[in-house]
């Protein structure tokens, strides 16, 4: 395994698990530059993650531009004591207003990102961006 000499074989492989039921969190309103997402927690055991669980990676892109212009957001999850929640929630800010968007989420370990969830479509309302 070229490039993995200093690591165990498990740390040089993609995670096996895929986040399920990825969706916009309907309990929270989508704002012009912010959306809330929810998905089922994955099994974080080393044999499923193939290394150390490092959270999730969420991609989003304008529907009209395609994946080649996607933005990536790392979602850090603390798997310490009490990590037994059935769902993961994340809020993404800085989205373009009044825009049709698509998104996916995947599990990441120390070195790789696993296969992505299903793609979801959502739309941000009109708004003005203030810095």
Automatic annotation (TrEMBL):
Domain Fibronectin type-III: 18-127
Gene3D superfamilies assigned to the protein according to its UniProt record, in alphabetical order: Immunoglobulins
Alphabetical list of InterPro entries matching this protein: FN3_dom, FN3_sf, Ig-like_fold
Source organism superkingdom: Eukaryota
SUPFAM superfamilies membership: Fibronectin type III
Protein name: Fibronectin type-III domain-containing protein
Organism, as annotated: Tegillarca granosa (Malaysian cockle)
